[in-house]
Design brief:
There is one protein chain. It is built from 15 helices and 16 strands. The strands form four sheets. It has an eight-stranded mixed β-sheet, sandwiched between helices. It has a four-stranded antiparallel β-sheet with strand order 13-14-15-16, covered by helices on one side. Strand 9 and strand 10 form a beta hairpin. It starts with a helix and ends with a helix. The structure holds calcium ion (2 copies). One calcium ion binds next to loops.
Length: about 475
Amino acid sequence: MTSFCRRIITLGLVIGSVLASAAKPMPAAERPNVLFIAVDDLNDWIGVLGGHPQAKTPNIDALAARGVNFTRAYCASPVCNPSRTALMTGLRSSSSGVYGNDVQRIGTPCKDVVPLNSHFKANGYYVAAAGKIYHGESDQWGEWDHYEPGRGGELPPGKGENEGVGGIRFAPVDGVDEEMHDYHTVEYCIEQLNKPHDKPFFLACGLLKPHMAWNVPRNYYDLFPLDSIELPKVLEGDLDDVPPGGKKMANSSGDHTTMLSSGRWKEAVRGYLAAGAFCDAMIGKLMAGFDKSPHRANTIIVFWGDHGWHLGEKQHWRKFALWEEATRAPLFYVVPGLTKPNSTCARTVDFMSIYPTLCELCELTTPSHVEAVSVKKLLADPQAAWDRPALTTHGFQNHAVRSERWRYIRYADGGDELYDEQADPLEWKNLAGDPQYAAIMKELSAWFPKENVPQGPTSGKKANAAKKKQKNAS
Ligand SMILES: [Ca+2]
Ligand SMILES: [Ca+2]
């Protein structure tokens, strides 16, 4: 055998062993850790998403700058429980029937699938959580190795929690960060990040603010002088071209009319900005703790808000709608060895992608029920080709598909809306009635779920009232 042949054979063996080692699954102990940060009701009013020009979120912006900031990321549902249930279980609302806050997943097809945290637990991870990850499901705490429900009470009873206009609650409080629930959630997570672990960990940190009530310490309100506050742009008569399904969601005769007649719109905007600034301070504290962690170099960070929030845009308040403001929320990933700092990805993704992405990054098999694909290739190359729009569902058979250019909404009664996000980012002009867009709407509607299961059983007062009504009717 010539030395040339021997070299070829040796090279072949080396390549063969490299391939074999690449195909071998990663030993459990070597898998990366996950820091999973969920923020309640944080919309695009952060510096790096530009939703409000006065937002002050330097720490959140700095976290985004560590990796990839998805600028077109959307919730699977614009309500706490359906959004979180879909993200965590891998089943969209249209497959689970979890459309509202009072539907518990235990009575739905969700009970038959493995949620994200349990999947990591079953694959050798230590899974721990503090604060709000699911929505009011204390009976599911057993799915974690440890769940920290909270060490500090929610802020200061009697310190202004009922202040505000109608159901929109805002007021500075004369308290300090240490009195806030989120402060203690972050403290717990810092402790976890800084202790030795013999297994890889999945640590979930669920912050409550900027969810209402916007009662945060006064120093955060002081960042936003009231007379400087800029209001969202609203077009008079904007809802005239919105079909009944959308008008019903907007319910402009409720919150918005009350807010206008109160003359306190600026105060409410200030309240949300202040609550966002408080959240930002908590993220700053968490990341300072993270930077001291011995696990830092082998820990993936994913940061998400559970849905958007309207503060008057389209004469609407809160979430509960299928427009941009209610559905867009932050999503960042920091993945050691994969993401590059200061990266921005403008591809459309929804939060269903978080489950399969974390599985792929940690080399776990994604369970077959999960209704989404991983975005790993966008983490490696944020400009990579991508043909998937984001899909959001709100209630039975109401859906929105968001591509880079368009938003197409169809309500249960067939009413629809089409917006050209390039020409009309505030979604003022509904193009759905114009035949020249028929082909675009047809193409986008192919992404709507083929099956829509009815709402699952609800709990509590509402459920009893509904049962009574049904009984009386039948
Ligand atoms: Ca929420
Ligand atoms: Ca309009």
